[in-house]
Design the sequence.
């Protein structure tokens, strides 16, 4: 590739690896711009602490020899978004090429219950015909039961201002809306009969979490613009008037697509994959939105409103 235009780094979540993005990469094959980008993956030990994972990502990005003028977008699923945020907060002064972070189903303010995490483990492994009955008490997983506390520890040794000029885009799965009753009633193609057989026995089957959610992470946990009392690196950009321009945060969903997505399927969805590719190609969420057709602007929802 003689003149790459951009570099993309794919960062997986827990109980996963870079293969979780295989479908996204196949969908991107039709996009010429994406084919002119450098695409890399970052595999990490998700059992380890978020901060340590962020340190590892920072080191890899800092050591990456890219051509002059090539910017980086981090495309993250689940815990991967927290890893990206940790890298920017602690080491942003060395990562000036990072321009965007996409976070699909990232529990930015979550307090995931151990039962939810155990359920996610079982569901993730269902299609591989494996069932694990023991849930390891590893720091990198247990941290997800109190994300706010984990991030505060990272803030204490980092600098939230590093994120000011980086565009954050959060994307939720909204499978469980107000009308959805039970996963077993609607069926899910990606796990087929295996998932339907094990669901009645999963600890997550009886979990009551705020709707809408993706089966594991609540929409209000993914979003960063809901509560001006929550401390995070985008708070000033969202709630303090003098910092609100240029736009550097967006929460994006489409009722025709996101409402069919669970936590383990967001990163595989065609519409979401193409939306991410288009934003990278257009350069910003605002440019992407401006160039959408009127019909597409009706279907796609962006908060804060453009």
Sequence:
């Amino acid at each position: 590739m003689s003149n790459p235009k951009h570099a993309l780094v794919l960062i997986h979540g827990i109980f996963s690896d870079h293969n979780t993005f295989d479908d996204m990469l196949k969908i991107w094959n039709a996009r010429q711009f994406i084919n002119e980008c450098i695409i890399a993956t970052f595999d990490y030990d998700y059992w380890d602490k978020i901060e340590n994972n962020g340190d590892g990502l920072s080191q890899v990005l800092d050591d990456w020899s890219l051509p002059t003028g090539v910017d980086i977008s981090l495309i993250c699923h689940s815990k991967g978004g927290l890893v990206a945020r940790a890298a920017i907060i602690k080491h942003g002064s060395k990562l000036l090429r990072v321009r965007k972070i996409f976070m699909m189903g990232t529990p930015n303010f979550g307090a995931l219950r151990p039962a939810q995490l155990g359920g996610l483990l079982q569901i993730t492994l269902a299609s591989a015909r494996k069932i694990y009955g023991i849930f390891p008490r590893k720091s990198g997983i247990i941290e997800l039961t109190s994300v706010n506390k984990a991030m505060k520890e990272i803030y204490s040794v980092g600098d939230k201002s590093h994120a000011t000029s980086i565009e954050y885009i959060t994307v939720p799965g909204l499978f469980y809306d107000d009308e959805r009753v039970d996963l077993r009633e609607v069926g899910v193609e990606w796990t087929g009969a295996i998932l339907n057989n094990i669901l009645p026995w999963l600890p997550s089957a009886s979990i009551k979490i705020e709707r809408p959610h993706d089966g594991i992470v609540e929409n209000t946990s993914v979003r960063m613009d809901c509560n001006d009392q929550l401390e995070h690196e985008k708070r000033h950009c969202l709630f303090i008037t003098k910092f609100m321009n240029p736009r550097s945060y967006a929460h994006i969903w489409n009722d025709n697509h996101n409402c069919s997505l669970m936590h383990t399927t967001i990163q595989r969805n065609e519409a979401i994959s193409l939306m991410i590719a288009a934003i990278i190609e257009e350069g910003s969420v605002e440019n992407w939105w401006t160039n959408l057709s009127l019909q597409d602007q009706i279907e796609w929802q962006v908060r804060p409103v453009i």
